[in-house]
Design brief:
25% of the residues are buried. This protein has 180 residues and is of the alpha+beta class. The chain has helices at 10-22, 44-53, 100-114, 129-137; strands at residues 2-4, 37-38, 58-63, 70-80, 83-91, 119-125, 141-148, 158-159, 165-172. The mean pLDDT is 89. It has a 7-stranded mixed beta sheet. A two-stranded antiparallel sheet has the order 2-8. A hairpin with a 2-residue loop joins strand 4 and strand 5. It is built from 4 helices and 9 strands. The chain starts with a strand and ends in an 8-residue tail after the last strand.
């Protein structure tokens, strides 16, 4: 179930995002950016600054039904004209093959839809083809738009390649979901 991340949980969210995006030691999965980007994906200071700059955005955690352990998180932000941005979708690496990612993504889409969203946009690093394909199977489409990778800003990690950029994906929330 979703709940708003409390201030005292930000360090746990940062740890979860960094494990999910950068890998957890030897336990790296197809969802990580290992081999493309190194270092922290985010920091508590960076996350606090972003939350302060965007008070209309939501940082949500997914936890056990009884309010137990945090299993995942997601950032949802209204952009205007019923379009929302979805970012920092992270699942505990120990549960990445248990279908929790699909559950979390679907719940995030429902949560945004209940608040007026008709479309969801996101960006994914271009070389993460398996992840892009995963989103496509869930009803997202590549828009053909790209955004530059912030090579001059190491707050999000250090790129290991010089060909990185973001592809923009979008989903019409009124369309049928992906097949699996």
């Amino acid at each position: 179930m979703f709940a708003l991340v409390r201030d005292d949980e930000l360090s746990a969210v940062v740890a979860l995002i960094n494990r999910a995006y950068r890998g957890a030691g030897l336990a790296t999965h197809w969802t990580t950016e290992v081999g493309y980007i190194t270092g922290d994906r985010t920091t508590e200071a960076l996350l606090r600054a972003e939350l302060g700059a965007k008070p209309y955005a939501w940082l949500l955690k997914w936890q056990d039904a009884q309010g137990g352990l945090m299993r995942g998180c997601v950032w949802l932000e209204p952009l205007g004209d019923a379009v929302w941005y979805l970012g920092s979708l992270a699942v505990d690496p120990a549960q990445q093959n248990d279908g929790l990612g699909r559950t979390l993504l679907s719940a995030a889409e429902d949560w945004a839809r209940e608040r007026g969203a008709r479309r969801i946009r996101m960006t994914v690093v271009n070389v993460r083809s398996a992840l892009v394909a995963w989103y496509v199977r869930r009803g997202y489409r590549e828009t053909g738009e790209t955004e530059p990778f912030p090579y001059d800003d190491d707050r999000f990690g250090v790129p290991l390649r010089d060909d990185l950029h973001f592809v923009v994906l979008e989903k019409d929330l009124n369309a049928l979901d992906g097949a699996d």
